[in-house]
Design brief:
The structure holds 2 protein chains of 2 kinds. Chain A folds into 2 domains: 5-124 and 203-245, Periplasmic binding protein-like II (D-Maltodextrin-Binding Protein, domain 2, 3-Layer(aba) Sandwich); 139-198, no CATH class. In chain A, 48% of the residues lie in helices and 4% in strands. Chain A is built from 11 helices and 4 strands; from the N terminus they run H-E-H-E-E-H-H-E-H-H-H-H-H-H-H. Chain B is an all-alpha fold. Chain B has a domain at 60-123 and 162-295: MetI-like fold, CATH 1.10.3720. A two-stranded antiparallel sheet of chain B has the order 1-2. The chains are: A mainly alpha, B mainly alpha. The A-B interface holds A 71-74, 77-80, 82, 211-212, 215-216, 218-219, 222-223, 226-229, 237, 244-247 and B 62, 66, 68, 129-130, 133-137, 152, 154, 157, 159, 243-245, 247-249, 261-262, 265-266.
């Protein structure tokens, strides 16, 4: 049912027409997923690339906003979070940690009514890094700590079981896949689910420019989806904003 | 007094310097040095990792043709004007009411008006975002319950609304403070002048217009200049109200937000420093204009200020 973007929008239409239920809390939810649908990163050899999937994202945003398939709010706003418990919003599009930070803490009356499923595009979002300073006097201690927080399977299992977070250590995720599932998810085991998904994640298209460019693109898309400007104007505004943020990039 | 010896006097001076030293040291480290360093950085290209490279006036060339910079200046100025004019009017009316009439609970009102100023600006920005963001926001739910036509509204899609809201928040946060300062200015006026006016048969409005206003002019000049400085540096409210980039369509992108974006998001610290230097000059010019304008309004006051 959700195997492609078109089918996803069909479901949204059906939900709207049959029960006046909104598919998403915000159209911006599908951003991370569509971001993973690109074939090229934002910049190649100092040149801005506007991938077709980004144009497709603008179109989808417009369709969702115009047809009222969402609550017309921003992700992480109170009404976005509150939609976990509402009976007129259908789903969230979230990365692995979405369950831990959005669904699990908010689900009270909807415990056991949630489930995980695959969307049109597999994606990964977030991440961090740890390092050891080259002149550190306590390198051994730093390494011991680093090893503990990243590679200690038992510690990871304890942490993951408590918070419901899919961790970055395969052995821990595999061990946890044997346990019983989450109460909120009606017994579904999220580790089992994500262990299957991990294999499908596409290669990494990150650039150092992503932060500012994403902000500019979402801002332009929002103005277009809200009806303030046309699609051409939105693309023009986006390109101007990218040059303002990074004059070293060339734009076509 | 002629016999006080010069040595003693010299010692006194030493103590004077000693007393201002703590301020001077803190000022030099935390104000003077950053200002000079910003000025130095404005001639450099620096991403924060590699050492700064001098590039002459290239940053300033860019600044003079940067549409976004001028837009951000206009945004800051517009938001400030839309908040300062109502603010000074409200302060004058309230302080006139409070000082010329005996109003029950005056101290309570004065404290209440001042309260919004105590809340951290960042929380106020988030609070107003919460009130207006989304179809299910508090404001929209009230409007829907009242059967207002067209509700729910996308408030933050409207440039005029968002910009006006920032001005309103600034007004709401600062009119109490301004009222207190204006009232303090009014209480310094000699009672005899008012009595003389009463004897001459002046009405309350005449007294306010011809005695109070001219005599509190130094207070008003002080208020205006500090408000221009604060207003042109406006950052926290517009930054927390929407997406930090001045959405919708840069309607509330102030100069401080723009320099933050250039410095800490694009990692172009040299250009951010140039924007900062440009803003510094603009604030200097605006303060000077305000000073001249308000001072040059005739010398009818009881004393030259």
């Amino acid at each position: 049912m959700l195997s492609s973007n078109e089918k996803m929008l069909d479901v949204a239409k059906m939900l709207k027409e049959t029960g006046d239920v909104k598919m998403f809390a915000s159209w911006q939810d599908i951003w991370n997923m569509q971001f993973s649908n690109r074939r090229q990163p934002w910049a190649v050899d100092g040149k801005l690339i506007l991938d077709d999937s980004m144009i497709a994202f603008m179109d989808m945003a417009k369709i969702i906003a115009e047809n009222g398939y969402d609550l017309n709010t921003d992700p992480w706003s109170p009404s976005w979070t509150a939609a976990v418990e509402s009976d007129d919003t259908f789903c969230y599009v979230l990365p692995t940690w979405g369950y831990q930070f959005v669904i699990k803490p908010s689900a009270v009356n909807t415990k056991g009514l949630w489930g995980l499923t695959e969307g049109p595009v597999p994606y990964v979002k977030g991440g961090t890094w740890l390092g050891i300073y080259k002149d550190s006097p306590n390198k051994d201690l730093a390494w011991a700590f680093l090893e503990y927080v990243t590679l200690d399977s038992e510690a990871q299992q304890k942490y993951a079981a408590e918070y419901g977070e899919y961790v970055s250590l395969k052995s821990a995720d595999e061990a946890l896949a044997q346990n019983e599932g989450e109460e909120v998810l009606a017994g579904q085991n999220l580790f089992q689910f994500f262990n299957e998904q991990v294999a499908k994640i596409p290669s990494d298209l990150m650039t150092a420019y992503d932060g500012q460019i994403n902000t500019a693109f979402l801002s332009a898309t929002k103005a277009y989806a809200g009806g303030a400007i046309t699609k051409e104007e939105a693309i023009q505004q986006f390109k101007e904003d990218v040059v303002t943020a990074y004059p070293e990039l060339t734009i076509e | 007094m002629r016999n006080s010896n010069p040595k003693h006097k010299f010692k006194k001076n030493i103590y004077g310097y000693l007393f201002i030293t703590p301020f001077l040291v803190v000022f030099c480290i935390f104000s003077l040095y950053p200002i000079l360093y910003t000025f130095f950085l404005s001639f450099q290209k620096w991403d924060g990792l590699i050492p700064p490279q001098p590039i002459g006036f290239r940053n300033f060339d860019r600044l003079l043709t940067d549409k976004v910079f001028f837009l951000s200046l206009w945004n800051s100025l517009r938001i400030w004007l839309m908040n300062y004019i109502p603010q000074i009017l409200a302060a004058l009316i309230l302080s006139a009411l409070f000082t010329f009439n005996r109003i029950r609970g005056m101290k309570f009102f004065r404290a209440t008006y001042y309260l919004p100023n105590l809340i951290t600006a960042a929380s106020v920005g988030l609070l107003f975002n919460l009130l207006f963001n989304g179809d299910k926001s508090v404001a929209n739910q009230i409007l829907i319950a009242l059967n207002v036509k067209g509700a729910p509204f996308s408030f933050f899609s409207s440039k005029a609304f968002t910009s006006g809201l920032v001005s309103y928040i600034q007004w709401w946060m600062w009119f109490g403070y301004t009222t207190i300062i204006v009232m303090a200015g009014i209480t310094t006026i000699d009672k005899n002048i008012y009595e003389a006016a009463m004897v001459d048969g002046a009405t309350k409005f005449q007294t306010f217009k011809s005695i109070t206003l001219p005599l509190i002019r130094p207070t008003l000049i002080y208020m205006t200049i500090t408000s221009i400085i604060g207003g042109m540096q406006l950052f926290d409210i517009p930054a927390t109200l929407t997406n930090m980039a001045g959405d919708p369509q840069k309607a509330i992108l102030t100069t401080s937000m723009y320099l933050y974006s250039q410095g800490f998001r694009s990692h172009n610290y040299g250009y951010a420093a140039t924007i900062s230097t440009g803003l510094f000059l603009i604030i200097g010019i605006l303060s000077l204009i305000a000073f001249r304008f308000m001072r040059g309004g005739g010398k009818s006051g009881a004393y030259a200020d």
